[in-house]
Write a structure and sequence with these properties.
alpha/beta; six-stranded parallel beta sheet; globular; 10 helices; seven-stranded mixed beta sheet; 16 strands; 313 residues
């Protein structure tokens, strides 16, 4: 095996022109890590927000930085302390976002952040699961503690996170309202949504007695969501920290969700996928040399599903 690999990195923060396809050394896994031969990576909004430098005050990345924090691939090497994974295992992960990512032919990840890939999914589909599905899981199951029979409003149901949120809410036995455009009504209903609200034609804020709101948009959408909640309801946002004073005024609980790696949750998502309960929509696919185009697609806000980077066969 060559000691060099190709990776898409940034040496400074800025627009898509800062993306560079470089030849760098293949990393060596630490004792608690695995080396993954990357098959596919997925693009998420956090990727280009990091590229732009928006999150640098929080994450304090060291440059050059390899982007990408969704991965599917094969274990190529294991550290001495790793016992649950072996060379050749097909895996997927949302690894630590503070470290180098998956826009590369190889990457290292802490083994406890890596799970066996769902056997029913392609490499591309599997790469599209971790970050978005873990976000939905942690928002709905951990923070909102969504229960069977509750009514949940999921904003932007046709987006990557929204699609997983609809499916996880239905698995939990909730009644699902979701906002979307008319062209995507069929998509969200097919995923299990009970009621699609065309935000161009209908006012979702007229809903009442909602148990849980999952906000993936922020701004006015978040502001107009408070009034839909019943007393004791819960709101979770992934775009901004909800105002505690407003939550208190409406007698509800509010949370901000920033997704964290979690192998056990990935194991459960694999079970759902292999049981046919979790579908993955792919918006578009690009090669490792086309990351700028992939970022452009993500930044447009028009992607309906996951944007995939195909790294190796």
């Amino acid at each position: 095996m060559s000691k060099l690999m190709k990776a898409v990195q940034i040496n400074g923060f800025g627009n898509r022109t800062v993306l560079e396809l470089n030849d760098i050394h293949i990393p060596t896994p630490a004792a608690n890590e695995v080396l993954i031969k990357v098959k596919s990576a997925a693009v998420n909004p956090v990727d280009w927000k990091i590229r732009e430098g928006y999150l640098q005050p929080v994450l304090n990345h060291t440059l050059p930085l390899t982007l990408g924090w969704d991965v599917s691939g094969e274990v190529a090497a294991t550290g001495d302390q790793v016992s649950h994974l072996k060379v050749g295992d097909a895996v997927y992960s949302r690894p630590d976002i503070s470290k180098n990512g998956s826009y590369a032919e190889y990457m290292t990840a802490v083994a406890d952040e890596v799970a066996i890939k769902p056997s029913s999914l392609t490499w591309q589909e599997a790469a599209g699961v971790p970050l978005a599905a873990l976000t939905a899981w942690q928002a709905l199951y951990e923070l909102a503690k969504l229960e069977t029979g509750e009514r949940v409003l999921i904003h932007a149901g046709s987006g990557a996170v929204g699609q997983f949120a609809i499916q996880l809410a239905k698995i939990r036995g909730a009644y699902v309202y979701t906002t979307t455009s008319s062209k995507n009504t069929g998509l969200v209903l097919n995923l299990g949504a009970d009621q699609a609200i065309d935000y161009h034609q209908e006012d979702f804020s007229e809903l009442k007695d909602i148990d849980v709101v999952f906000d993936t948009i922020g701004g006015e959408t978040l502001v107009n969501s408070w009034k839909t909640l019943k007393k004791g309801g819960r709101l979770v946002s992934i775009t901004e920290d909800p105002d505690e004073a407003t939550a208190t005024k409406h007698d509800v609980s509010a949370f901000f969700c920033f997704v964290q790696p979690n192998r056990e949750q990935l194991d459960s998502l694999s079970e759902f996928a292999d049981a046919g309960q979790l579908k993955v929509s792919i918006d578009s696919e690009f090669g490792l040399g086309e990351v700028a185009k992939a970022h452009e697609r993500s930044e447009s806000g028009r992607a309906q599903g996951k944007i995939i980077i195909n790294v190796s066969e």
